[in-house]
Structure prediction request, 594 residues.
Amino acid sequence: MYNEMSDLSVRVAKTDISSDAAEKLQYKIIVEQLDFFYGDIQALFDISMNIEQNRVTALIGPSGCGKSTFIRTLNRMNETIPGTRMEGKVLLDGCDIYQDFDDPSQIRTRVGMVFQKSNPFPKSVFENVAYGLRVNGIKDRNLIAEVVEESLKRAALWDEVKDKLDNSAFTFSGGQQQRLCIARALAIRPEVILMDEPASALDPISTAKIEDLIGELRQHYTIVIVTHNMQQAARVSDHTAFFYEGKLIEDGPTKEIFTRPKKKKTEDYITGRFG
Amino acid sequence: MRQLKFKPKSRIREFVGEKLISVNAYAALIVTLLIFIFVFKEAIPIFTDSIIQEEAAPDKMVFKQQFYEGREAKWSWQPTSDVPKYSLMPLFIGTLKAAIIAMLFAVPLGVGAAIYSSEFAPKRLREIIKPAIEMLAAIPSVVLGFFALMILATFLQNVLGLTFRLNALNAGIALGLAVIPIVFTIAEDAMTSVPRALRDAATALGANTWQVSLTTVLPAAIPGIAAGIVLGFGRAVGETMIVLMASGNAAIVSASFLDSVRTFSATIAAELAEVVFGGTHYTVLFFIGSLLFVFTFLINLTGDFFLVRLKEKMQGRTT
Ligand SMILES: Nc1ncnc2c1ncn2[C@@H]1O[C@H](COP(=O)(O)OP(=O)(O)OP(=O)(O)O)[C@@H](O)[C@H]1O
Ligand SMILES: [Mg+2]
Prediction:
């Protein structure tokens, strides 16, 4: 629809797809034997996992088990932390995001991210949403205005802010700010959206709005969400992965994980026996 | 189970401690106020004493004066000549010239170094750069003045082929050395205090390192950088020893930065010891002192204003 963007994705998708990986294209993201280190400390151990297209995948597990570390390897955000090291592969549509792209920012335009604590820029609502477009070289004012509106609508925020686009992002409530951050992530038209505990700092009503929103968004995007809230994982996700001490203990359809977990550890965790 | 017995807190000790601490704060405030009053008191005759006003009324200090019959009117600072001349304009221009050179030299270097240190330097290097630049602030200004007088002046004279060694350029650069650490420290602190969450947000939207710095960190830190520049300017105007040693101290009215200059602060330092107590010259020097005092006060107020803005911005209370 908008050339600037589709051009980029076409070019990116053409980079060589290994035949082995091509078979697995039904998966949006494939993680193979991933290890991750903070300095000498290993935080992730041999993680292999497939993430399905247009589904919501929930990552659960006790504090410190590596959920955030894992989700941040999916858009190369961990590279911004000095002294970290990674082994293994992350394939996006069959392309190795660490090998096949020189510039990590290309990945981040395709794999967007929403953080635990809403972090709008000290700018207006409009400029917050337009930011990702501007830094990626889009100058056409009409196009920017169009995408900003579309993104705010998709984030179910348009009606609340349409008359206040020039107001500072900080003049809105915590829940609105978080939806603004979601709109901002949507504006660059990512294919995947990573959410690290997006509702953990919000009140129940705002949380419900975010959950509804995730339900809407899954039609268009592949979503990976970290949550500490079991009910939330059960409500919003199609697929659930349970992490423990840096290892992926088990993953599968959410219903199965919550009703018939295969591993004892998983069962103990979801029934609240620890964590 | 054993009982927990909490000890009641001594009201009196708290009271005495609090008072002792507040006395310190008030003492500093009162000393400042007393200096302010003293300096102003000595300058008041400019506005009230008719004899002093004959030579140095405010308008005479600002506008061109015809000092000799038949000659053209001009600005001139010659307080000890047969016809004493008290135009402040030559000193004002001198002060401004030295300060402008200092700022032209120090702001790009200070802000540039701050950006490099906070955004691009590897951690190890940053740990060297920051203390090294801040060390500059610890060099006594008489040493900087000495350096400018002996080494920098000769260097500039050779490179630019100048007739006079001591001039606004020489003094300004030496002043700049004193201003750099002020601009650097405040600007660098402002940039490093930009929350990591903002950088992450920009990075996650596909901004590269440059874009994160220029479009996110720098705009957020602007009030802090402004504060650094304003406070640096205050130092450039108030600094005395460096300009006294490096500027040549000739009160010349010209637009050239290669002419000698005489600044307000150096004038007070050089002349106050030799004036007649309570005389016109004495009063005028105190008037200059009052001007510097008010100026510095306003500069610090402005600097503080920017720092408050910075804090608000970081905490997300304003745009
Ligand atoms: N920047 C870092 N430097 C060093 N170690 C880190 C860093 N970030 C995380 N870790 C370590 O890596 C491990 C995994 O942390 P991570 O933040 O991924 O856990 P998490 O599952 O997201 O926890 P939580 O639920 O509390 O957010 C922890 O042991 C943590 O101490
Ligand atoms: Mg986490």
